[in-house]
Amino acid sequence: MLNLAKIERFVEAQRYEDLLEAVTENGRWLPLPVRVRLSGVESVELAALGLALQRATELAYGPAPVLADVADRLSEALAGACAHRPTPGAVASAMSGLLAFQRHVAHTGQAVEPAVRARVDAALRQGVYLLFEAQSASASGLIGDTIDAAMLLWHLAEPLGFRATLEAGGLVRVEDFERACRRTGAWKDSAVQQVLRATGGGGHRRRPARAA
Description:
By secondary structure, the protein is mostly helical. It has one domain. About 65% of the residues lie in helices and about 0% in strands. It has 11 helices and no strands. The radius of gyration is 16 Å and the shape is globular.
């Protein structure tokens, strides 16, 4: 079973491919094409840390120092992501992880150093800018390709504040993205449908957990 201690060990050892596999087999199931995309060298750190941080907030029933450690490492990775050009789907996963952390802190009262809070806020702004860049490069209004669209639609449907964060920045045109998904047929693409079915149309479908 995946637990906070195992997540911490994976993160400390920087075993991001193993972490991504463990998380997607224990609470964050995703179809194979999406896992392959997220495991790319330019994206695996952001995707693994982001999805793991979301899962970790579910496993922690109260304040847990490991959450702040993972959030800080993820913030550092997202802040420097311009050099690696991660996929929009990985950026969205990273942002959702940080948003889950902020929500957990607010709900549990976990003490977090001001410097860590500031780095999380800065990383979220960086994520918004990366998605803005990706949308600006698209004539259709999509953000990345259909697999990226699937990940963004998933995170937009989550109650973590991802949509509000994008809209508050005033850069990413969320409604244009959703219209582009319908207009281009991306919404009907098999990759998109697989993700939405696997996650319950936006929520997380719980599959039986396997040993990590």
